[in-house]
Amino acid sequence: MQVNKAVIPAAGFGTRFLPVTKAQPKEMMPVLDKPTIQYVVEEAVSSGIDDVLIITGRGKQAIEAHFDKSYELEEELKNAGKTDRLDRVREIADLVDIHYVRQKERNGLGDAVLYARKHVGDEPFALLLGDTIIESEMPCTRELVQYAEEYEESVLSLERVPWERVESYGVAEVGGDVDSEPCFPVEDFVEKPPREEAPSNLAITGRYVLTPEIFDLLEETEKGVGGELQLTDAIRALSSVRGVELSGDRFDIGNIPDWLKANIEMALTHDDGEMNEAVRQIIQEQLNE
Ligand code: UTP
Do residues 139 and 102 share a domain? Predict the structure, then answer.
């Protein structure tokens, strides 16, 4: 089994971030100097993926424009002698082979994944949510790909969330021993359980490697919560699934506190000394007021 393709759903409405997302895709929300979806594509590339399919929809043209070549801009930068910036702009267009397919109606994440069926075919694939950045030493998707290839099964990244927040997530019922097995079997998932009924506090994070069996299961899945086709419902029907505990930081850019946190944390941790200092100073000034 070899994983060469990645699918990035980016067709959602982004209602939690209105009015910003009224006319621009939430996946284009900047974190520092890059739009969110660029971090996601970069994670796929650094995980050994050489073919990316982005699921887009109405109002998402800015995503395609971002990864396209921009002749006029390149010409302007070249003429102005701004070579650093020129290189950065060119790098984006040269990142990887990107394909697009449009989800016609927003019928949920499961429905968005079904649009990838024709492109992916009968192969396992990585799935990375276009609105979620994961900062980790080893790219999260690379770790999942390695385990999926080793076990020849679907593998999901799972994050330990505070027990009082399990109600907001799809939560895993673990089959094996999480402490002794880095890639453990998962028996089942429970969508948004009340705390007292949650089988664990290991929540689905937005990074998956799925076997192509998922497509038939999605075709058979009935619409679930919110009248949407839920990916988790199809994952529950997979013949076998494993989980890996996330060892980095996850930022769901679709909500304002997480987006702010991503900007602050990443400004403080990225190796741009000037930026670190400027942000530290701003925070210090605010705390002193
Ligand atoms: P969300 O669950 O955050 O949904 O999607 P949303 O509609 O984008 O946002 P809210 O809840 O209204 O604020 C998670 C990822 O799945 C994609 C989104 O673009 C996002 O990257 N998605 C979601 C689709 O591609 N299609 C869908 O029908 C739903």
Answer: yes
Nearest CA to ligand 1 atom 5: 12
Q: Give this prediction's pTM.
A: 0.94
Residue 13: HSE in the Cβ half-sphere, 13 Å Cα cutoff: 9
CA of 98 to the centre of ligand 1 (A): 20
CA of 196 to the centre of ligand 1 (A): 28
Nearest CA to ligand 1 atom 18: 12
Quote the radius of gyration of the chain (alpha carbons, Å).
20
Q: Which among 100, 111, 129 is the best mutation to test ligand 1's pocket, defined by most ligand atoms within 8 Å of the CB?
A: 129
CATH number of the domain within which 58 lies: 3.90.550.10
Say whether both 141 and 11 belong to one domain.
yes
Asked if 186 and 289 sit in the same domain, the reply is no
Measured in Å, residue 37 CA sits from the centre of ligand 1 at: 13
Q: Which domain holds residue 261?
A: 255-289
The one-digit pLDDT tens for each residue of the chain (289 residues) are: 899 999 999 999 889 889 988 899 999 999 998 999 999 999 999 999 999 999 999 889 999 999 988 888 989 888 988 988 888 888 888 888 899 999 999 999 999 999 999 999 999 999 999 999 999 999 999 999 999 999 999 999 999 999 999 999 999 999 878 888 999 999 999 988 999 999 999 999 999 999 999 999 999 999 887 889 999 999 999 999 999 999 999 999 998 999 999 999 999 888 778 888 888 899 899 898 7
Residue 279 to residues 252, 271, 273, Cα–Cα distance (Å): 21, 13, 10
- The total domain count for the chain is 2
Cα 286 to middle of ligand 1, angstroms: 34
**130, HSE (Cβ side, Cα atoms, 13 Å):** 27
Please name which of 227, 218, 249, 229 lies closest in space to residue 154, comparing C-alpha atoms. Answer: 218
- Which residues surround ligand 1 with Cβ inside 6 Å? 9-16, 27, 55, 103, 106-109, 111-112, 129-131, 254
β-strand partners of 218: none
Q: Do 242 and 269 fall within a single domain? A: no
108 alpha carbon – ligand 1 mean position (Å): 7
